[in-house]
């Protein structure tokens, strides 16, 4: 089968988007490849299609643990054999996936980067027929990237295990320095670099300078139609703005990482289906959200970098139709960007203090914790030690980059269930009426529970079993204790994984590359953001494309700077034309210009202005 045949068979598309086929053919030829595709450019297709054409297994390394299961479920719905392995999975889930791999029942395997840190797992990988390695969100491997993750450095070990397997590195936002660092870190030699322009011709980028953001937001939302996203930098503001927008008579809801999985799914679905036109969200919203008809993205608060702005703004207009990306900026935002940078890089003493207190909170003693995963109640931790959220989260992220621990803050798992007992054994169970109803409802609603862990909605089961969700929860725990099934309740708690044993704070090493050098780069990104919003008088798109290494881009003609320049040119041009015609007419008719002559030389729109100018001249 050709790539086009595979695309049509599994996805129903008749043609590839720009650069997709070029990337696919490059990896099928066995070449290491870096693919730079803009947000919404269809990166997944570039590895899923060749994975189905190659023998053996394709390993996809991705940091998006919370989306792995959904991605695997989506592929299975298309008849594609897929699985995932990450540190948040139970032993039973992990064993089931590895059994499927050993039986050749998986073609695409999603793996979290921290799994690669474990020598035992790498030895296990060596037994499998790995034919292609995919690095999703590849900018995470670069210390110069805005989202560097030390666990990505473990990819070098994977590369050593399978030197003949081509590596495909994919990202939507990378500067030239980051692209070079990706190639170096992945030990790429004679690699192909295939990229689409970062330009999105259908998006108009606009910056509105205002000290009354609420009034501007109301005006913008009222004057535009279609689905919209409003991005803010705090969970509290998502709630406040969604309430305010609703008061203005528009349908809105809020979204942030603190919601449980059911609430997130419910709000995503309401927005995607059009029941809610506007969603107010933190940057937790967007990954894995593919709604093509978003007409408007508003940034109520300034992002810390152009990379993040580009990714978030790029969620508008994926259907190719006209869309707007509007940034609201006040003079106070200049100082706010600097303050956020200070919160992002708290002092070293503070970082080591957070490490020590986190270990104490989790009851991990010195020399313990190696290769363990702990649920981390961040709210209780902050309250216990009276710590401020922003610098504490930053400290945990810096410790993650240093490889001291792995903090997964946006992990949000759905409930899952898998039957351990055979169908025939179920007939011999002695259960109370509620538990029996729950069991029967589970068997009716959830297909495939005897073969794999299946996502579970306790509310739906409760409705079918005519009981409360709490009764469903208790019944499933009872059945789990009876070894009838394995039940993993949902959780939205962050996770902390220890790749090494706990150490004394004075022995904890935070490399210069993780702290001082990253601080310098973050400062550069902040200054670039500040210049983009407050300092530049050139086309927004040309400014942004130059930042991403596209040096020969022209003006877009649609951003606020281009529109302002166009209006000035039009006004200057009109004035020059009027003066030139008046000079000619005055020379030809020194005693006065007849009205028919005026009408022949001017459009109705400029006639009134020309007459006014002529009267001023005659009065002189």
Task: Explain the layout of strands and helices.
Elements: H1 3-11, H2 20-28, E1 33-36, H3 43-53, E2 57-61, H4 65-77, E3 82-85, H5 91-102, E4 108-111, H6 119-125, E5 130-135, H7 155-161, E6 167-171, H8 176-185, E7 192-195, E8 203-209, H9 213-223, E9 227-231, H10 235-247, E10 252-255, H11 261-272, E11 278-281, E12 294-299, H12 306-313, E13 323-329, H13 332-344, H14 348-361, E14 372-375, H15 378-385, H16 389-401, E15 406-408, E16 415-419, H17 423-426, H18 433-445, E17 454-456, H19 458-465, H20 469-481, E18 485-488, E19 495-498, H21 516-535, H22 540-547, H23 560-588, H24 595-601, H25 604-619
Parallel strand pairs: 1-6, 1-7, 2-4, 2-5, 3-4, 5-6, 8-13, 9-11, 9-12, 10-11, 12-13
Antiparallel strand pairs: 14-19, 15-19, 16-17, 16-18
Helix pairs in contact: 2-3, 13-21, 14-16, 18-19, 18-20, 19-20, 23-25
